[in-house]
Specification:
Mean pLDDT: 92
CATH superfamily of the largest domain: Bira Bifunctional Protein, Domain 2
CATH architecture of the largest domain: 2-Layer Sandwich
Bound molecules: 3,4-dihydroxyphenylalanine
Number of domains: 2
Helix content: 40-55%
Strand content: 15-25%
Order of helices and strands: HHHHHEEHEEHEEHEEEHEHH
Largest sheet: 7 strands, mixed
Shape: elongated
CATH class of the largest domain: Alpha Beta
Distance between the termini: 83 Å
Number of strands: 10
Radius of gyration: 38 Å
Length: 340
């Protein structure tokens, strides 16, 4: 009789038992299923049970064994899950203890340029890095045989004949065309992005780099507006005493075109190896949007005029921080990046 009661009690225990930790599960397992465990004893005593009770008691004993095994298995599973859960959740307010990351210097300069221009009403837009010939070249007034279409400069994705290619964009000027095709003037926007050129990688050239393009189209936009906008930019970017000069230049998509220099910050304009003894360093290209480009984008060039400019972000970083080797920006060397 005592024997049956014991089985009944152990069964109730197995069905309701809870454990606080894995050790408790293990202790329970040893107590019940271990070599000298309770169940072993019960099975031993089973031999002495009168035959007519064997069937009933045997069933109860087997049910108990199954219940004990289930209790152990369920508890183990629960603890396995909680262990990994608790590792994941842990304490979310705990300080990381490691080093903090920050934005890449190229991205910091990009944000600064965006901030400077957004203060005078320029909005940000972006375009695709894989471009067709129309947006990267033709609409921008590049003649079909212009050397910039040459295999040397352009990474082709699909090459057709001269004006039927798909390539990685070689400059962000392509976004000008996309915006002008979509939007009627007034347009006042900047287009930051990555560009690609088929160049041998060296300290001064890379096969990819970053540019910010600017575009302003409205009635009566003049070269003086361009100059004042860029002077404002140079002062905000390089300091309020920064001097600029515009040198005549050539780009297919602007007429007249210019390159803008700032006074060399290293020698204060006296001349040094950095500015090749000229006292000036180039920072961007610019000009009045060529009427052909406006017409290509269905903007009436007799009503509207505008200016455009384009600058390399690495170039600005180079001037601002004196980084001479372009490759450092894409090598992800923490010793370099941590300085910004
Ligand atoms: N797209 C030119 C380049 O990659 C830069 C440039 C020059 C952009 C003059 C302009 C511009 O918008 O007016 O070298």
């Amino acid at each position: 009789m005592q024997y049956k009661v014991e089985i009944e009690q152990l069964l109730q225990e197995a069905q309701s038992i809870t454990f606080a930790c894995v050790e408790e599960v293990e202790n329970y397992r040893i107590r019940l299923l271990g070599k000298k465990g309770v169940l072993g004893d019960l099975f031993e005593k089973f031999k002495t049970i009168p035959n007519e009770e064997k069937r009933e008691v045997g069933q109860a004993l087997n049910a108990l064994k199954t219940a004990v095994e289930n209790a152990i298995a369920t508890a183990r599973e629960k603890f396995e899950n909680t262990v990994s859960d608790s590792r994941e959740i842990d304490d979310l307010t705990r300080p990381s203890g490691g080093e903090n990351g920050h934005r890449h210097p190229i991205w910091q300069i990009r944000d600064k340029i965006i901030d400077i221009f957004s203060r005078i009403g320029f909005v940000v837009a972006e375009g695709p890095e894989i471009e067709d010939d129309w947006h990267n070249f033709s609409a921008l007034n590049f003649p079909p045989d212009h050397p910039a279409r040459d295999m040397q400069d352009t990474f082709f994705v699909e090459s057709g004949d001269n004006t039927n290619n798909i390539s990685l964009r070689t400059h962000t000027s392509s976004v000008q065309v996309r915006i002008m095709e979509k939007q009627k003037p007034p347009i006042r926007a900047i287009f930051p992005g990555r560009v690609y050129r088929n160049e041998a990688i060296s300290a001064r050239a890379h096969c990819f780099f970053h540019q910010v393009e600017g575009l302003y189209i409205d009635k009566n936009v003049s070269f003086a507006d361009l100059r004042e906008t860029l002077l404002y930019f140079a002062k905000e970017m390089f300091g309020s005493s920064t001097k600029i000069r515009l040198r005549p230049s050539y780009f297919p998509f602007t007429e007249p075109s210019a390159e803008m220099d700032i006074e060399c910050s290293l020698c204060g304009g006296k001349g040094c190896p950095f500015c090749k003894h000229t006292g000036w360093v180039e920072i961007l290209g610019c000009g009045m949007v060529d009427p052909n480009v406006l017409e290509n984008c269905n903007i009436d060039s007799k009503v509207y005029s505008g200016f455009a400019f384009g600058m390399g972000i690495e170039r600005q970083a180079n001037l601002k921080y004196g980084v001479k080797d372009l490759r450092l920006f894409s090598e992800n060397d923490k010793r370099f990046l941590a300085q910004f």
